[in-house]
Amino acid sequence: MTAPPDDCLARNDWICGEYLTSRREILWDAVVQHLQLTVVSVLIGLLLAVPLAVAARRWRWAAGPVLGLTTVLYTIPSLAMFSLLLPVYGLSASLVIAGLVLYSLTLLVRNILAGLRSVPEETRQAARGMGYGPIRMLFAVELPLSLPAAMAGLRIATVSAVSLVTVGAIVGHGGLGNLIYTGMNTYFKAQVLTASVLCVVIAIAADLLLLGVQRLLTPWTRAVQS
Amino acid sequence: MNTLSSAWSWLTSAAHWSGDDGIWHRLGEHLFLTVVCLLLSCLIALPVALVLGHLGKGGALAVNISNVGRAVPTFAVLVLLLLTPLGTHGQWPTIIALVVFAVPPLLTNAYVGMREVDRDVVRAARGMGMTGRQLLFHVELPLAFPLVLTGVRIAAVQLVATATLAALAGGGGLGRIITAGFNLASTPQVVAGAVLVAGFALLVEGLFEIAQRLAPEWARGRMG
């Protein structure tokens, strides 16, 4: 009989270099899945949120129901949201994406609407005076001016999505959440800590990336601040 | 839809409401966790936020803590706490995780509420010879109250959600009905549990909404 190896895996340490090297591929796959789920959900959420926010801005009666519905959706806890979608999507990645789309949608609609509402009336009157039609006004004046608020919403939605993907572990599609879930069941400390830290790192990286994009897209906000 | 009718019959069967795994027991656990942790979080967060807001210090911390709270996955914190030595102490990992995620919205909203009090009003109160304590309790706190209440409301909804997730890490509450449903591969039970959780969360949100509408003018939230 050989004695079990006395490395950090056998001791079940929280921090373990051996784990990182031996499970590199599993970790990489989980990170890729995590990123895919996040990016796809936020992008679909954005595609749906812009027309909804524009509609709520244009027609006053639409604002109440749109905001009410998004508040209701946002109130439903993530685990319940995924569970309610189970009969529709089954145990699939689509279920996780659908749930995350609903959350991102909520945050994005609110922020884009706030952005559209913050466009000064004088600016719109000036554009109208220069002969801008409603469509051109929307794309050339209103949407660009609502970018700061919209980008703030996009950052919040993305960071929340990164964190919520982990709950997808309940249906086996949770990216790093899967590693946390199996790590919990097998009491594997290094795996749980590594996956958790990676989640936070992804969230921070995504936030900084979007902050950079925001600065590139809205140079006028910097000029005002300085 | 077939699943919906089976979920309905799961919900309406009397056997599922009684006993240790029953809905009443899980609802009680959920309510207990939410209320106790909301009180704990308020006791921790509000004094800190009110004092920081009164002194006008630590703003960056109070505002950024919400962003940090959003980036850290709730599920990860629950599992990490479960694997620490605390994990063997019953409900404690759940309670700590719940408080950790309820404190940021309370702190941020109360702090912002305190700082948004009209500076002219504060200066006038000082000019009238109010002490710091009088200023805090008779001027700043009443004026900041709507935002403090909004923070409590966000925290309460957050607590209901976190308590649900706690079931994934072996905690009690209504989430247990969902996780048990997944383990039994019983879609009706999963959906029934989800309906209960969603209903509970919406009820909490609705109660705060009603409370804010019934409240006197000065205590009403400005946010929709």
Automatic annotation (TrEMBL), chain A:
Write down a Pfam family by its short name: BPD_transp_1
Q: Give the CC-aspect GO terms.
A: plasma membrane
List the coiled-coil residues.
Answer: none
Q: Print the keywords alphabetically.
A: Membrane, Transmembrane, Transmembrane helix, Transport
Main subcellular localization, coarse class?
A: membrane
Q: Read off the Gene3D superfamilies from this record.
A: MetI-like (1.10.3720.10)
Recorded hits in CDD domains, A to Z, give:
TM_PBP2
Q: Which InterPro entries match?
A: ABC_transp_perm/SBD, MetI-like, MetI-like_sf
Where is each ABC transmembrane type-1 domain found? Answer: 31-210
The record's annotation in PANTHER family points to:
GLYCINE BETAINE/L-PROLINE TRANSPORT SYSTEM PERMEASE PROTEIN PROW, OSMOPROTECTANT IMPORT PERMEASE PROTEIN OSMW
Specify the protein name: ABC transporter permease
- Source organism per entry reads Streptomyces beijiangensis
Phylogenetic lineage: Bacteria, Bacillati, Actinomycetota, Actinomycetes, Kitasatosporales
From TrEMBL, chain B:
Spell out the family assignment given in the record's similarity comment: Belongs to the binding-protein-dependent transport system permease family.
Q: Does the keyword Transmembrane apply?
A: yes
Q: Which domain of life is it from?
A: Bacteria
Residue ranges constituting the ABC transmembrane type-1 domain according to the UniProt record: 27-208
**Membrane topology, record value:** Multi-pass membrane protein
Bilayer-crossing residues are 31-55, 67-86, 92-114, 135-154, 160-178, 190-208
The cross-references to PANTHER family, in alphabetical order and at most eight, read: GLYCINE BETAINE/L-PROLINE TRANSPORT SYSTEM PERMEASE PROTEIN PROW, POSSIBLE OSMOPROTECTANT (GLYCINE BETAINE_CARNITINE_CHOLINE_L-PROLINE) TRANSPORT INTEGRAL MEMBRANE PROTEIN ABC TRANSPORTER PROZ
Q: Which UniProt keywords apply?
A: Membrane, Transmembrane, Transmembrane helix, Transport
One annotated Gene Ontology cellular component of this protein: plasma membrane
Transmembrane among keywords: yes
Coarse class of the protein's main subcellular location: membrane
Q: Which GO terms describe its biological process?
A: glycine betaine transport; transmembrane transport
This protein is called ABC transporter permease
- Protein's cellular compartments: Cell membrane; Membrane
Cross-referenced Gene3D superfamilies: MetI-like
